Amino acid sequence: MKLIKYLQRFPKNPGLKTTLVAAVLATVSITATIVYLPWLIVSRHNIDKIISQVNDQFALGASKEVEQLFASTQSAQKLLQSSFSQSLINFSNLKEKEAFLVNVAQANPNFTWVQFGDANGDFFGARRISKDMIRFHFRDWNEENKITTKTVNTYELQNNKWVKTDSFQEEMNPPFYAPNRPWYKNAIKNPEKPAWTVYIYRSSNAPGMDGTVTVEKEGKTIGVIGVGIELKQLSEYLRQLREQKESEVFIINSKNELIASTDFNEVMPARTADRNAFQLEHLSDTKNPLLQYASKAISTNLVSISEAKSLQKYAYTDPKSKEKYYVSLTPIGYLDWVVVTVIPENSYLDEIKRNKEILLIAIVVFSLTTVGLAVFATDRLIARPILCVANVAGDIEEEKFELDKLNTIATRTDELGQLARVFKNMARQVYSREKKLKQQVRKLSIEIDREKRKKQVQEIVETDFFQNLVDRAKTLREKNQEKS
Prior knowledge:
This protein is α+β, with helices and mostly antiparallel strands. It contains ten helices and 15 strands. The strands form three sheets. An eight-stranded antiparallel β-sheet has the order 5-4-3-2-1-8-7-6, with helices on both faces. Strands 10-9-15-14-13 form a five-stranded antiparallel β-sheet, with helices on both faces. The chain is rod-shaped, with a radius of gyration of 53 Å.
């Protein structure tokens, strides 16, 4: 009951100013909402499109880089294969073989190794240490003693000339036997056809890829030539491709093993049970959070890398942080490699949030300014004139005809001016009619009073009492006359 009594204190209908201000606020708010909401919806909708474009850029760049690596490797393979098979190189002359392989390594900055594994177990190859240093390795296998003697000659670039600066010899432990190496075995499986082997290089303990092919002479396999590329350069390329965005790009094979990654530390091999053996890092064993999210997205969606034939997109939401991550897989077209991108939604939402805040501030400032100007203009141009007319109408109701208050409004040429002029004319007519009516009422009142008095006199005269008085008065007059 108290609440009802309290609410009854307030007018049921708001005042004119309140109504106009509310109308202006509603109009500005609706306009701001119409501007803001579509922008927000479209901006969030475009995230998928932007991420797809970024993924396409990563996939295309990585594919081109890998294609270039494979193309240059295959060209070098053909050169080496023809040189050895056609006896363009004298196998009995170690210096000639050394000079040939060092020159091939010099001409191809992307190559880490240019090598030849002899069927008898020997190995010789040129390894690039840096752009200014190349080392030639000769590993002499002793079949009788099962030992390998390694000779290493170092060449450095000095004054645009390659100069031999160092040489040493040592026994290898464990021994090195060329036909036991993975790249040699893969080449032997399909003679005279290119074979590709990804494994951990013993010389650097880093992932590498060897493109190898057998060398046939007189129908007999005399060895395997190959070109080795450390995959670190592929990781470096992915890092340059990524630029500054908070994302990760990596390449995995069908076994979910890392081939290259923008986070190179994750590509470094993990030790096996054998302390001297290393294997490629498995995606699920990585420490990088974004790579872990990618691994979870792949396992959650039961993705088979070996069956990936086209672009596949997945979204993973971290159950703890509730943050969303976009994971895309694109086959490169070489071997079983797939480019995977992991892009946090927040990396693009942050920019949208900043733009949203700027837009909100602009809308608030615009709305407040517009509302202020609209309220001021509405009060001066509409509310006050209408209230003035209303006040004059109230005065007229109290019989106060102060029409001079409408003079300023009546000079306006708009509808309010017309209203004031019409109201003044109407008020004058009302005043004139009221004045005449009052005069007529006064005149009528006088006539009514006369008739009333006449009637009252007549009523008195016609009474028996008055007639008795008249008779008595007449008798008295007559007695007075007789006495006189």
